[in-house]
Amino acid sequence: MRQSFPSEPALTRLGAIPRTELASVPTPLLAAPSLAAHLGAGVRISVKADDRTGLGLGGNKVRKLEYELAPERLRGVTELVTSGGPHSNHCRVVAAAAAQLGLRCTLVINGQPEDPTRGNACLHRLLGASIVTVPERQDRDPATEEEARRIGAAGGRALVVPLGASTPRGALGYVHAAVEMHRQLDSRARVWIFVCTSSGGTLGGLILGCALLGWPVRLVGVSADEPAAEAKDKAVGLALDAARLLGGKEIGDSVRTLADSVVTTDDFVGAGYGAATPAGDEAARIFGARTGLILDPVYTAKAAAAMIEWFRRGRVPTSDRVVFVHTGGHPALFR
Ligand SMILES: Cc1ncc(COP(=O)(O)O)c(C=O)c1O
After folding, report:
1. Strands, E assignment, the chain
2. How do the domains of the chain map onto residue ranges?
3. Catalytic residue numbers, as ranges
4. For a pocket test of ligand 1, which of 27, 92, 199 has the largest count of ligand atoms closer than 8 A to its C-beta?
5. Is the CB of 166 under 6 A from ligand 1?
6. Residue 199, ligand 1, Cβ within 6 A
7. What's the 330 CA to ligand 1 centre distance in angstroms?
8. Residue 303 to residues 23, 110, 152, 268, 283, Cα–Cα distance (Å)
9. Per residue in 155-174, pLDDT tens?
10. Is the shortest distance between the CB of 327 and ligand 1 below 6 Å?
11. How far apart are CA 318 and CA 99, in angstroms?
């Protein structure tokens, strides 16, 4: 099943794109035999433990920030500015990166957190970020621009990190993750990869990485919020834009070919973004008891619920292998 690397020059070019090392990588690929036995799947299941990327309690944002915060982009910068909800994992990791790099950090947050703060809201403050609160989601962008202007007027220089660090550049972090998994699996079996998707950079990077490797995986993106079609369009668009950073028209063609087989689902969103679901709660309990791994209710539990449903419906042949990408998010359990 595995093919040769058709785009080796592109992978070499990826190696030449500067990044700031923030993540503890490669993260382990953990075997989950007891989970597979419990699900009666007859399939080898592994977990790519990206909850262990380290910085600021880890998760998928750390890999993306390595490229967003590349050294040449940080030249002269005094402060990172970004935005998110009161319990944003992204804001937590940006604040941690700023602290590690000796920069200040402003977070533009919509909505008031509870008092005293808990979960990520507590960690945003513990990591030394200044918090600017705005009433609604749509108020975040203008307030972020205003903060960047304020910092400039005071003689500093702001780098605005876009939502979720899901830019073409940020998606390159997940090209690396795909390369790691390809090496770690070292298998001839067909591989399914289940991953949660929201702002699209994680899934987009995986699509590009697998396309570059000529690795015909079955990627399943489990939406945390948006309709499935929009989630797919966003991720594929990011993969194509990130491919341009690596040059070569043939890369875009292989992204499009792989994208045809990418499945996204919104069947596990439930009442909406952030709302726990019975299927997610069940998946988290199964994972906890059968792997010792902790899932969060907002992202990873929903992705795990999808994977379990795939098995229950017999959609994964026993000759295949399955990887569940654990993208982190643990603080949501303590909000
Ligand atoms: C824990 C966790 N998992 C998955 C995702 C989804 O990743 P992406 O935004 O790259 O689609 C996020 C994004 O916020 C997240 O915080």
Report:
1. 29-31, 44-49, 79-84, 104-110, 130-134, 158-160, 191-197, 218-223, 263-265, 321-326
2. 8-60+167-334, 70-160
3. 88
4. 199
5. yes
6. yes
7. 12
8. 23, 26, 41, 8, 9
9. 999 999 999 999 999 999 99
10. yes
11. 46
pLDDT tens digits, one per residue of 129-157: 999 999 999 999 999 999 999 999 999 99
Is ligand 1 within 6 A of the CB of residue 164?
Answer: yes
Mutate to test the pocket of ligand 1, among 83, 93, 196 (most ligand atoms within 8 A of CB): 196
Q: Tokens 């990887």 sit at which residue? A: 323
In sequence order, the 6+-apart residues with CB closer than 8 A to the CB of 332 are 87, 89, 119, 120, 274, 296, 297, 298
Separation between Cα atoms, residue 113 and residue 106, nearest integer Å: 16
Q: How many CA atoms lie within 13 A of 161 on its CB side?
A: 33
**Which atom of ligand 1 lies closest to the CA of 197?**
11
What's the CATH class of domain 8-60+167-334? alpha beta
DSSP 51: G
Is residue 330 within 8 Å of 51, Cβ to Cβ? yes
The single-letter code of the amino acid at 181 is M
pTM: 0.96
Q: What is the mean pLDDT of residues 29-45?
A: 93
pLDDT digits (tens, 9 = 90+) for 77-120: 999 999 999 999 999 999 999 999 999 999 999 998 889 999 99
Look at domain 70-160 and name its CATH class: alpha beta
Q: How far is the CA of 268 from the centre of ligand 1 (A)?
A: 15
Is residue 318 over pLDDT 60?
Answer: yes
For ligand 1, atom 13, name the residue with the nearest CA. 198
Q: Categorize the per-residue pLDDT at 61 as very low, low, confident or very high, splitting at 50, 70 and 90.
A: very high
